Automatic annotation (TrEMBL):
Similarity-based family: Belongs to the binding-protein-dependent transport system permease family. FecCD subfamily.
PANTHER family with a match to the protein in the record: FE(3+) DICITRATE TRANSPORT SYSTEM PERMEASE PROTEIN FECC-RELATED, FERRIC ENTEROBACTIN TRANSPORT SYSTEM PERMEASE PROTEIN
Gene name linked to the record: yfiZ
Record keywords: Cell membrane, Membrane, Transmembrane, Transmembrane helix, Transport
Signal peptide: none
Gene3D superfamilies xrefs: ABC transporter involved in vitamin B12 uptake, BtuC (1.10.3470.10)
Primary residence: membrane
A single BP term in Gene Ontology: siderophore-iron import into cell
Entry's localization field: Cell membrane
Transmembrane segments: 66-86, 98-117, 123-144, 156-177, 201-219, 240-265, 285-304, 316-333
A cellular component term, taken from the record's GO annotations: plasma membrane
Membrane-topology annotation of the record: Multi-pass membrane protein
Organism for this UniProt entry: Kushneria phyllosphaerae
Name by which UniProt lists this protein: Putative siderophore transport system permease protein YfiZ
Coiled-coil stretches: none
Length: 340
């Protein structure tokens, strides 16, 4: 790429990021307004900055819509960046956090806890989901590190696919045996950002935000790693150290997001591709763009899920699957055409 082309791409990325930021702010406003009874922007402003103790609308906005909006922003950004990191780590454009068994491990841990300790506090299930995600990723990474070419992308993908199938099989077996456990864990299986108490979720939200910030020092090394391990080594990048750090970040991001909101599919898969169309491949621009787009996508999916079948709501995990599945099929077709 010429210097002029590189400068043009960087300028394009810097101009796109503020636009994505404004789009996210607009989506947050719509999320605060949306519901069975829509609120006006003036009502949202009043509820946030000049609330009235006698106003039911103010109470609804502050205690119901605001928490689910903030949670959707954090979860959407975390899942999207986790997907981008996985695509860089494996050099596979169709990779996502689930490829290393994180989602399946988290869900299996929740199912085990619900079956064994049905009266446990909600925070215990959150912690169990995060621990299950971490243990699953560590197990996959250990399997991929064995033998030649430790940590190789293909070995990582194969180990992740095998353990994902194993965790899913165990989870389904436990739920078939324990029907009451199925009813309890259903909201985790579907994926949702509603009804989550922020007073119990703030540690997981803090983990997600810290992991997002921790991506910044590694972005130059990620740029080199995206060109291949041999090229990265020739540029002085400690490849295995960077790969390990990226896996830790993926575990922290995707594990915390699954613990908070359950199994939300396709955000980590399709958002990085959407960001590539708007931003250059430089991770210093691409990863922030993924975070902004992921938060916006999850917010809008949640708004649609709230409004499409009033007075009922469709879980946001179902909406992201309905949006993401067609996009995934389109990506598969385009990749197939490139290889023809």
């Amino acid at each position: 790429m010429s210097v002029a082309a590189a400068s043009g791409a960087a300028l394009k990325g810097r101009s796109a990021l503020p636009a994505l930021g404004l789009l996210l702010l607009a989506a947050m406003l719509v999320s605060l307004m949306a519901g069975a009874q829509w609120s006006t922007p003036a009502a949202v402003w009043q509820a946030l900055f000049h609330p009235s103790e006698l106003s039911v609308e103010d109470l609804l906005i502050r205690t119901t819509r605001l928490p689910r909006t903030l949670l959707a922003v954090v979860v959407g950004a975390g899942l999207a960046v986790a997907g981008a990191l996985m695509q860089t780590l494996t050099r596979n454009p169709l990779a996502s956090p689930g490829i290393v068994g994180i989602n399946a491990g988290a869900m299996f841990a929740v199912v085990v806890l619900v079956s064994m300790f049905p009266q446990a506090a909600l925070w215990a299930w959150y912690g169990g989901a995060l621990l299950g995600a971490a243990l699953a990723a560590l197990l996959v990474w250990a399997l991929a590190m064995r033998g030649q070419s430790p940590g190789g992308p293909l070995r990582l993908v194969l180990a992740g696919a095998a353990l994902t199938a194993l965790f899913n099989a165990f989870s389904q077996a436990l739920l078939v045996i324990d029907q009451q456990g199925l009813d309890t864990v259903l909201f985790w299986l579907a994926g949702a950002v509603s009804g989550r108490p922020l007073s119990q979720l703030w540690p997981l939200m803090a983990v997600t935000l810290l992991a997002l910030v921790a991506c910044w020092p590694l972005m130059r090394s990620m740029n080199a790693l995206g060109t291949g391990e041999a090229m990265a080594r020739s540029l002085g990048v400690p490849v295995h150290r960077v790969q390990t750090a990226m896996v830790v970040l993926v575990v922290a991001l995707a594990g915390a997001c699954v613990a908070m909101a359950g199994n939300i599919a396709f955000v980590g898969l399709v958002v990085p591709h959407m960001a590539r169309r708007l931003l250059p491949s430089d991770h210093r621009l691409w990863l922030p763009g993924c975070a902004l787009l992921g938060a916006t996508l999850l917010l809008l999916a949640d708004v649609v899920g709230r409004c499409v079948l009033l007075p009922r709501e469709i879980p946001v995990g179902v909406m992201t699957a309905l949006i993401g599945a067609p996009l995934f099929i389109v990506m598969l077709r385009r990749q197939g055409r490139r290889h023809d």
